[in-house]
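@here heads up, posting the sequence + SMILES for the coenzyme A run so it's all in one place. Ping me if the SMILES looks off, I pulled it from an old spreadsheet.
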Amino acid sequence: MSIAYYKRFRMEIDLDRLPPLGALPEGCRWVAWHPAVLSSHAFVKFRCFRMELDARIFPCLGDQHGCAQLMRDISTRRGFVPEATWLIARGNDYLGTVQGVIDRTGVGMIQNLGVIPEARNQGIGTSLLLQSLYGFYEAGLSLGMLEVTADNIGAVRLYRRLGFRRARTLYKAVNEV
Ligand SMILES: CC(C)(COP(=O)(O)OP(=O)(O)OC[C@H]1O[C@@H](n2cnc3c(N)ncnc32)[C@H](O)[C@@H]1OP(=O)(O)O)[C@@H](O)C(=O)NCCC(=O)NCCS
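bot reply: prediction finished. Complex structure tokens:
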């Protein structure tokens, strides 16, 4: 067993200067948070992350039961923000998920933004992220934040494009076999 260190960025954005939320791609619709959609968030999260680098850093993301437990933890946490927690659906399928929580300092923390591989590069990730940030803003918050693995080039580029700036660099220690 060895320990690997993964470089991560904490990035932040002012919520009173968000770009406008555009229309969803054709056929897509918003699904607001309700306890009845917890398992849908969990399953789409699993589909989004199972093949990704973040599933090595946070093994629960690569496991269906782990994703279900994570969703239960997030949605029962004290700072959970339903208005910042969304799914995007097309037909009977869910394409992406995002959740929001307020941390102890009153900052809106984006959790686990994910879009299934087949639905990427259509603007769905951008829409989910903005919808969640507007949810924080409507809940009265002024700062949004997230953490991203530095090697997740596409995600970092998306966040920069929307106006996120790097606030801190962290190293996440992971036991690897
Ligand atoms: C990161 C992630 C959420 C992005 O989702 P996405 O739906 O592909 O994001 P978008 O489509 O909004 O943006 C991705 C690119 O598509 C482009 N795009 C947006 N709308 C488009 C359209 N209609 N046609 C073509 N391209 C489009 C965007 O310009 C963007 O390119 P750029 O960032 O190089 O400028 C997704 O790749 C993912 O789920 N990855 C795995 C999980 C993960 O790592 N999550 C982040 C954790 S911090």
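MO: The chain has a mean pLDDT of 97.
MO: One more: The two ends are 4 Å apart (CA to CA).
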